[in-house]
Design goal:
- By secondary structure, the chain is α/β, with parallel strands linked by helices.
- It has a single domain, classed as UDP N-Acetylglucosamine Acyltransferase, domain 1, CATH 2.160.10.10.
- It contains 3 helices and 24 strands.
- Strands 1-4-7-10-15-18-21 form a 7-stranded parallel beta sheet, with no helix packed on it. A 6-stranded parallel beta sheet has the order 3-6-9-12-17-20, with no helix packed on it. Strands 11-16-19-22-23-24 form a 6-stranded mixed beta sheet, with no helix packed on it.
- It is globular.
């Protein structure tokens, strides 16, 4: 025989689930860090409309961390300045993050020495940037006990850093660079290039004389026409493929 359905129990679970979700959303809103609501954090600078999502990852050395305006820092992102908490690091910032930067969920930026991230950079989830690497010069000493090597890291403005990429000490990444997912970057990367692999190498580059070499395999995106409103774009997003194709045909005919 089929089991009788406990309607009250099912209704109670739905109510409890909604309450949990609503409560967690409230915790996320309340726990997020902004210039107006920094909580226990005392960043050297944090610009307007910048938000660090809750829950945060490890954060220390924040007096030497400068965040620009309009930045989005995802959940569980680690931001550190100095080898450990409670160090005196001098008068200058150690970690500088420009305006409009997005750091994806679970990313780490470890600035034991200077790390600079230019404006309008976008990081996918779980990107790892570090200015420190282990040394292994002494074959008789455990690697974790040997003094690490440190080199400044600089990421130019307008870069896209793919999911799971690793940026190693001493990296100098130029302007508007694409770092492919999973790439391991060291050394200097020129402006307007695409790098991939471990270690990363340039697989495509743009220059004023030659354009993109090798040539791009896909056509450039069609820009949104002037005068199109956000409401119209939202309506287009709800169209099914057949309706969208019909509209495109009518537009081409007329």
């Amino acid at each position: 025989m089929p089991k009788s359905k406990n309607t009250f129990s099912s209704w109670g679970r739905r109510v409890a689930q909604r309450a949990v979700h609503a409560g967690w959303a409230w915790v996320q809103r309340t726990g997020s860090v902004t210039a107006e609501r920094p909580g226990r954090f005392r960043f050297g600078a944090i610009g307007e409309h910048t938000r660090l999502a809750f829950p945060l990852g490890t954060v220390f050395g924040e007096p030497w961390i400068h965040l620009g305006s309009h930045c989005i820092v995802g959940e569980q992102v680690t931001l550190t300045a100095g080898l450990m908490p409670d160090l005196e690091l001098g008068p200058d910032p150690i970690l500088r993050i420009g305006d409009g930067v997005v750091l994806g969920r679970g990313s780490h930026v470890i600035a034991d020495t200077t790390v600079t991230i230019g404006s309008d950079c976008y990081f996918g989830p779980y990107v790892y940037v570090t200015s420190t690497n282990h040394s292994y010069d002494d074959p008789h000493e455990p690697i974790g006990k040997q003094w690490p090597r440190m080199e400044p890291v600089e990421i130019g403005p307008g870069c896209w850093i793919g999911t799971g990429a690793v940026i190693l000490p001493g990296a100098r990444i130029g302007r508007n660079v694409v770092v492919a997912a999973g790439a391991v970057v060291r050394g200097t990367v020129p402006d307007h290039s695409v790098v991939a692999g471990a270690p990363a190498r340039v697989v495509r580059r743009w220059t004023p004389a030659d354009g993109w070499q090798p040539p791009l395999r896909t056509p450039a995106p069609v820009p949104i026409p002037d005068g199109v409103t956000s409401q119209q774009l939202a309506a287009l997003a709800d169209l099914d493929e057949e309706s969208a194709a019909r509209l495109a045909q009518l537009d081409a005919e007329g």
